[in-house]
Amino acid sequence: MAGGSDPTVEEALIRRAKAKDTEAFGWLVERYQARIYSYIRRLVRSREEAEDLTQDTFVKAYRNIDRYDGRASMATWLFRIASNLCIDASRNRSRRVDAVSIEIMPVRDPEDGTWNPELHSVAGEMRAAVEAAIADLKEPLRAVLLLHDVEGLTYEEIAGVVDVPLGTVKSRLFVARKSLQKALSPFLEGGVSQ
Amino acid sequence: MSDWIIKAEREEPLNETEAQALEEALQAPESQTVAQMVGSLPPFDAPTTISKRVASAISMRGRLRYAYGFGAAAAACLAVFAVLSQEGPEQAPVTQSEASELLEWHYEAAATTVLPGDGANLAGFSQVATQEARPQ
Q1: Cβ separation of A168 and B11 shorter than 8 Å?
Q2: Tens digit of each residue's pLDDT, chain A (194 residues)
Q3: Residue A143 CB burial class (10 angstroms; 0-12, 13-18, ≥19)
């Protein structure tokens, strides 16, 4: 991948991408696809749909790259596109509240059917519990939690991504964490305090 | 439950004191513990197919743009050709006898039109003189 995290390298890539240099845009895809895919994967809870939406995110980004003015970071801009596409997808998709369909951590290895050994460790159980608790959140809360606690965006950046006021971002984050506190109380020392 | 918590759950605006309480709650140890648990989740490995699919979709858009352009130009040429080739045969010229009749009609019309002598009073233009029988 070109230039690691050097911002000047990224600026050059963006300039070339705006000139419809597909190779330069390809470098940007390589740079951000893991973060975007992870975010979408936890947001929509389906591997197949996450792949499609990730592709759609970058295609839309390529189509609109000339509108990117650099005021927000490229990551923030991509997260905004991804969030909007996920919102559109959730409106179109029939709601499946079936928790079994969550493809976050397979109980059995999909290739040979053996039990997933990770689940038998405390860390593995905790991870599964955290993923499940996140998956149980309503989508607006889940998005803010993922953007802040996983992706490290600031409150202001998140407000721009999901297009809500700053106060609403903080409220959603508080409610999301409070919900997870209850769900993860067996793993927390001293249980949940109100 | 505190009022500000209810307002936060309803996403209602908070006053300054309530917003301060919210900020403190977000910084509280139990909230930070949850944040750390969430933040420690490993990222998912993006399928390698994604970058290939994006590259394919982007290049397809470029090829499609050219294809549409050529297609549109070809369609326009065909449409013009079709219009031009649809013109009927040239109208046959009038026969000699028909032409002679038309000429005679013209002379008669001219002869029976009375024009004012000095051309000043064109109101008399429309008057038609009494037609005298033409010699046979």
Answers
A1: yes
A2: 445 567 789 999 999 999 999 999 999 999 999 999 999 999 998 899 999 999 999 999 999 999 999 999 999 999 999 999 999 998 887 555 444 344 455 555 555 555 555 555 778 888 999 999 999 999 999 999 999 999 999 999 999 999 999 999 999 999 999 999 999 998 886 544 44
A3: buried
Helical H segments across chain B, by residue range: 3-9, 16-27, 29-39, 49-85, 96-111
Considering only CB atoms, A173 lies closest to which of B26, B37, B47, namely B26
Which one of B14, B35, B43 has the shortest CB-CB distance to A167? B14
**Within 10 Å of residue A33's Cβ, how many Cβ atoms?**
21
CB A139 within 8 A of CB A162: no
Q: Give the DSSP letter string of A75-134.
A: HHHHHHHHHHHHHHHHHHSPP---GGG--SS-SB-TTT--B-GGGGSHHHHHHHHHHHHH
B76 touches chain A (CB under 8 A): no
pTM, rounded to two decimals = 0.69
**Residue A186 CB contacts under 8 Å (≥ 6 apart), including other chains:** A129
Contact call for residues A161 and A43 (beta carbons, < 8 A):
no
| Rounded Cα–Cα distance for residues A143 and A109 (Å) | 28
In the block, which residue shows the tokens 């409106």? A91
ipTM above 0.95, yes or no: no
Residue carrying the six token digits 């964490």: A177
- HSE-up of residue A126 (Cα within 13 Å, Cβ side): 16
